[in-house]
Specification:
- The structure is a single chain.
- By secondary structure, the protein is of the alpha/beta class.
- The chain has three domains: 206 residues, Rossmann fold (3-Layer(aba) Sandwich); 58 residues, no CATH class; 141 residues, 3-Layer(aba) Sandwich (Trna Endonuclease, Chain: A, domain 1), CATH 3.40.1350.
- Helices cover 42% and strands 16% of the residues.
- The protein has a five-stranded parallel β-sheet, with helices on both faces. A five-stranded mixed β-sheet has the order 9-10-11-12-13, sandwiched between helices. It has a three-stranded antiparallel β-sheet with strand order 6-8-7.
- The longest helix has 19 residues.
- The protein is globular and about 85 Å long.
- 42% of the residues are buried.
Length: 521
Amino acid sequence: MAQKLPLGIQTFEVIIKGGYIYVDKTALVHQLVDNNKYVFLSRPRRFGKSLLLSTLEAYFSGRKDLFQGLAMEQLETEWETYPVLRLDLNTGDYTQDVSSLTDTLTRYLRNWEREYELEPSDSALGVWFGTVIEQIYRKTGKQVVILVDEYDKPLIANVERGKMALQEQLRNMLKAFYGNVKTMDACIRFAMFTGVSRFSHLSIFSDLNNLNDISLDDRYSQMCGITDEELHHYFDEGIAALAQKYGLTTDEAYGEMKKRYDGFRFSGCGKDMYNPWSVIKTLDQRMFGYYWYGSGTPSFLIKLIRDRQLDLTQLNGQQLADEETMMSYEDATTNIIAPLYQGGYLTIKSFNLRQGTYMLGFPNMEVERAFSRQLLPGYTGIPQDRVPTLASVINDVAQAGDVDALLTTVKGILAEAPVESSDERVIELNYRNLIAICFRISGLVSHIEVPTSGGRIDVALEADEYVYIFEFKRTGLHAAVRQIEDRHYADRYLNDPRRVIKVAVALDDAVRNIASWQVVE
């Protein structure tokens, strides 16, 4: 019987009762509730935060029957039942005014009053929430469990500068609402808040100053997502079927999965994690694809990346940041790294313990390619529906070893980029960014600023049978040729069985484009 994949299912009970694959995270759940009372966890979308809260809901509801055969069955010796208040802010349009948030919170409060047969209240939302918590505690004699999913959705929906006034109103509402958790401490057994971002400076949780942020905690870095060991343990049957379809060995299919969907790291010393949505979608469709990025990148973020002149070549794993920069998501116009990291566009590649700094980069091919495909229209004005065609052309001609067709296509893309600055530094950066985007959209492996014993290769592009080495020079073709030869860039690939094609490229500042190129023999 084929394995049942929980595609789009975020309810623990449905997964267990339906016989779907469940990657057992219950040992970490037990550790979490055994050592914490107030918890905050930030993770990108589609990483299983809702399923985690559903698992906690089942645990605190005393559903021992659902944990048979899981780690929790052996770890928990005293099953107790608690009243669980679960709040999900993921739905609702919060971009017009505060009424949607008011209606959502009111609906939950009314439902809890009916469920526990409480006296109706007409107090302000924050006071009302505290009253509900206290009344449930008094009536049941049990402390209350509070689980809040996507606590920050109303704020993220209004993160653009033009919406900051509305965001401030929503922030004040949420602060008053969540603030009652602290005042009801004696009535609460456990509380967990999840979301994409940590709005620390907005002080949403300022009254809840004992909230434990586990977002960068090594102990819980594997709580959401799939490890390499888990992929092999739970999904071997699906990987084998995928391999058979594509004519690959099982090891080759695992390698393709790793290249495309692995690489998310959520702590300095944590393991790389696969995106669970992409894994399950791939195995369900039996097709390698680009699934996590289905909803695309927010348009305001694309505009900010361009306007702030972010060096996209650094995103290959060379973007330096500290914890404050990565985690404090207040205003994307002043800190663009936070939304990129927290949204999953960048991830931790390495950690410097002595300096307390992180090196960030793209987690995998899926994110790198899809992110670049969203960026190309923002830099050039090329319509989004033309991007797949351009990407396919670049892939095809690179696979065929056709240097002329490859660089002619890139030259055509650069020609559609508007001239927006006379600043030499901006011109140089735009050259690098656009060229990086052109190669990244192809789906081929591209490396920017590749270190060698003689210096750094501008771009290395890997096709199935070819490795391209590109050197771009604004000072002329001869200088590019000389640098490739003098610095022996091709030596880096002496042990690579593929043919190495060395290409010198001259750039013309007058037209802001490629002037000429030459294959260096």
